[in-house]
TrEMBL record:
Its main location: membrane. InterPro entries: Beta-barrel_TonB (IPR000531), Beta-barrel_TonB_sf (IPR036942), CarboxyPept-like_regulatory (IPR008969), Plug_dom (IPR012910), Plug_dom_sf (IPR037066), TonB-dep_rcpt-like (IPR039426). SUPFAM superfamilies: Carboxypeptidase regulatory domain-like, Porins. Keywords: Cell outer membrane, Ion transport, Iron, Iron transport, Membrane, Receptor, Signal, TonB box, Transmembrane, Transmembrane beta strand, Transport. The keyword Ion transport applies. This is TonB-dependent receptor.
Length: 818
């Protein structure tokens, strides 16, 4: 192992002898607010070179001779600017951009984003950083280097259904918006990126806020939020294609284009993508298609932009995971779709698939009402429909509303069948934001909000049965409807109290009304209604120590309503007594330090301490309802606390080193675990239960240590090589801190190579290689467990299931920009 690491390091670092004479470096800022601008484009005139500013607004050009150079600097929403620089330069110079005479139309997005004065914890991920990692894997994998992030994949290779956790909170507790529009499912609170394949190729940037963060639209941010902005204003016409091939027969084909600014007013952008993979796990294929299209009008004081994007996915399900006993024998085994054929042999149903299409439509409008006052708003509509198909053995006919089949004297009460469970829904609404900046620039204030409604049908159909009984074609055996209305209004302001001290305040009111009617898939009547009213205050302060250093602190409250299953899976006794799940509340403290040092060796450092105190958090406790479904229960007290460190240094103009580390403690107080006892009857028939109290135990899926490290070198012009190392400590599958029910810690290394050249016949060509898990580590990033006791056994039985991740694999891409 040491020899391998030595050879890799020597190969990467050997070309450092190729030293340039001078480096031209600078920083881009907003002239009005003096804020850093990440993602600005800088062109070196006459030299055919270009770059973009990083998360700290910094950029540089290397290997330049002494002399005078002209730079053209541009950024979405700002006027282009030309500046001249003479080398050798005496220090870092700053480029201040003025707001554009054209309305770029990002008022709603800006209204829900944090900045360096809000006292909150966030990371900005630029378009270029996303593109660096975009080989066709799902969006969570492109954010894997963000602090406190852990990702996983059902199929094992990052294509298809994937998951992301930030500070231990899964996607149901992470607020996700696209251009300020909520995309979390209104009922489950999940955001399914598989329904938006290759959206990353149309993203301008992403802001990840950790903790409650600032006010946003949609479900409450209960661990983090992801604010995604799609492609902004492109003044120049472009066309691009990217094709990827890799392990497990993985393919990605993307074609993008843009008209540039037509007649100084109109823009059109588009993209078509297809992603497919067989997956690392057996029978875990993905077949994904998507498009993105936008058309905009940009006037001097107003903007109107239409955006639509759609995804269509078909995936063979790998949701059952792998039994613990198979981890050492067959790590790719997939039991989903397993049944016994007529000859008694093991067989797999070949269409055990998930099929879903989701279409998004957004209409954005922005208007400058006065020199320091602007208004933005958007109407949106999302249409989703699809099903997953299952082969089920020995199902009771009565559970599907069917009569027994009588053959002579025999009464047949069970049948094999194929069923489809459908979701058919509409989500629509409007968002708005009114922004004001005072004449002296000390006050920034926003009044914003949204109203959204979800209307969704849940139903199941039988498409084949061995014994059809009195069924009809596509027999519908359950049907339920959900109607959910979500309204919020918020006001927030940042005030520069002194030259060094800025204060931030944010207050949101949110109301939710949720109505269910009809039956669920177990044929239970789930008709009920619930309403919630939440007040979410936030406050923070930022103090500038000097031009390079600042400290901040904030406090925020977040509230979150229960998800659909918390209502539909209630026990009969709860229903009869009118007991409903309580909403969850989070009290979030953040305090941090930021260092930004420029010069010959640019260096950034962030340190953040957080404490997240939960009240009535809903977690699985082992309790089951009347038909054996696991129930989430409100736990009175639980907390997460930790320290997040992130640093990046440019050791040499050809070498960059970046690292982040999270050390945390995640605990539940006075946790009650329920384990049921059963007799030998195969049907669900508990004969008793055992309750164990844990005074303090670890929250499931919450590793104490997460780290990510990057070493990137540029040995020759156009070639960038990066070595990425990720570590995650052990995690528990439930909330008991049991070593018998856990995910082992793991360390994974990736190698990424990108070589760019600029021939005369195209703007740019690039070939790139990503070798994932280069050290061939066997590890599992997700799983689940359940336990029981049987009357004839002395000890409890634990059933652990895991999702193995792919061993060494590669993705090779070739891209052309015209």
């Amino acid at each position: 192992m040491k020899k391998l690491l030595f050879v890799m390091a020597a190969t990467l670092l050997f070309p450092l002898q190729l030293l340039a004479q001078y480096t031209l470096s600078g920083q881009v800022r907003d002239a009005a607010k003096n804020e850093l601008l990440a993602g600005a484009t800088i062109q070196l005139q006459g030299a055919g070179k270009g770059t973009v500013s990083d998360a700290n607004g910094l950029f540089e050009f290397q290997e330049l001779q002494a002399g005078t150079y002209t730079l053209q600097v541009s950024f979405v929403g700002f006027d282009k600017k030309q500046v001249t620089v003479t080398l050798p330069q005496t220090g870092l110079f700053e480029v201040h951009l003025q707001r554009a005479s054209l309305q770029a139309g990002e008022v709603v997005v800006s209204a829900i984003r944090a900045n360096e004065k809000t006292g909150t914890t966030f990371t900005n991920v630029t378009k270029e950083q996303i593109a660096e990692q975009n080989f066709g894997q799902d969006l969570p994998y492109l954010l894997e280097r963000t602090p406190s992030v852990v990702v996983n994949s059902d199929a094992g290779a990052g294509v298809g259904y994937t998951g992301i956790r930030i500070r231990g909170s899964d996607i149901t507790r992470i607020n996700v918006t696209v251009n300020g529009i909520p995309v979390n499912d209104a009922e489950s609170h999940g955001a399914f990126f598989v329904n938006m394949p290759d959206l990353a190729s149309s993203i301008q940037d992403i802001q990840v806020q950790r903790g409650v963060g600032t006010s946003t639209n949609g479900g409450g941010a209960f661990g983090a939020s992801m604010n995604i902005r799609t492609m902004g204003l492109n003044r120049e016409a472009y066309a691009e294609t990217q094709n990827t091939y890799g392990s497990f027969n993985t393919w990605k084909h993307t074609v993008s284009f843009g008209s540039g600014l037509l007649n100084d007013k109109f823009t059109v952008d588009g993209r078509l993508s297809k992603v497919s993979s067989d997956g690392y796990i057996d029978r875990a294929f993905s077949d994904l298609k998507s498009y993105y299209f936008s058309a905009g009008y940009h006037g001097k004081t107003g903007m109107l932009k239409f955006i639509t994007f759609s995804g269509q996915e078909k995936t063979y399900q790998a949701w059952n995971g792998l039994e613990e006993s198979k981890l050492e024998t067959d790590r790719t085994y997939n039991s989903t779709g397993l049944y016994t054929d007529a000859n008694g042999n093991e067989a797999f149903y070949d269409n055990e698939t998930d099929n879903y299409q989701q279409d998004h439509y957004q209409l954005h409008y922005s208007k400058d009402l006065a020199p320091r006052l602007n208004l933005g708003g958007a109407f949106h509509f999302t249409r989703g429909r699809g099903y997953y198909e299952q082969y089920k053995e020995s199902q009771r006919l009565a559970n599907y509303g069917l009569a027994p089949v009588v053959l002579g004297t025999e009464s047949i009460t069970r049948t094999d069948l194929i069923r489809q469970k459908w979701l058919d829904n509409y989500f629509y609404g409007a968002t708005y934001a009114l922004n004001y900046t005072s004449e002296n620039g000390k006050l920034d204030a926003t009044l914003g909000g949204a109203v959204n409604q979800y209307d969704g049908d849940h139903y199941g159909e039988i498409i084949w049965a061995r014994y059809a009984s009195n069924s009809q074609i596509r027999q519908r055996y359950y049907f339920g409807n959900a109607l959910k209305t979500d309204f919020n209004i918020f006001g927030k302001a940042t005030y520069q109290l002194t030259e060094d001290l800025s204060l931030f305040g944010d207050l949101q009111y949110r109301t939710v009304n949720y109505e269910l009617e009809g039956t669920d898939d177990d044929n239970r009547d789930v008709t009920q209604q619930a309403s919630y009213n939440f007040i979410n205050p936030k406050a923070g302060a930022t103090y500038t120590l000097n031009e390079n250093q600042s400290i901040y602190a904030s406090f925020a409250v977040g509230n979150r309503e229960p998800v659909r299953s918390d209502f539909t899976d209630r026990t009969q006794s709860d229903e009869q007594n009118g007991i409903t799940p309580k909403p969850e509340t989070l009290y979030n403290w953040e305090a941090g330090y930021r260092l930004r040092r420029n010069g010959s060796m640019p260096f950034t450092f962030d340190a953040n301490f957080y404490y997240m105190d939960y009240k009535n958090q809903l977690v699985l406790t082992g309790q089951l309802n009347d038909v054996g479904t696991g129930l989430r229960t409100n736990i009175k007290n639980s907390y997460r606390t930790g320290l997040e460190l992130a640093a990046q240094v440019q050791l040499h103009k050809l070498v960059t080193l970046g690292s982040n580390l999270t050390v945390s403690r995640n605990k539940i107080r006075n946790y009650s675990e329920t384990v049921y006892s059963y007799d030998n009857d195969q049907d669900y028939n508990p004969s008793g239960e055992e309750v164990t109290i844990y005074k303090e135990a670890d929250i499931a899926f919450s590793p104490e240590i997460i780290s990510s490290h990057l070493l990137e070198v540029q040995p020759v012009t156009g070639l960038r090589a990066a070595f990425i190392y990720k570590t995650v400590s052990k995690q528990y599958l439930d909330n008991t801190s049991s070593e018998n029910r856990k995910l082992n810690g793991y360390q994974v290394a990736d190698l990424r190579l990108r070589y760019t050249l600029k021939p005369v016949f195209v703007n740019e060509m690039e070939i790139a290689l990503l070798v994932n898990n280069v050290l061939n580590t066997k590890y599992e990033a997700n799983g689940y467990t359940y336990s029981s006791r049987f009357d004839n056994l002395p000890a409890r039985s634990d059933y652990n299931f895991y999702y193995p991740q792919a061993t060494r694999n590669f993705l090779l891409s070739f891209g052309v920009k015209f």
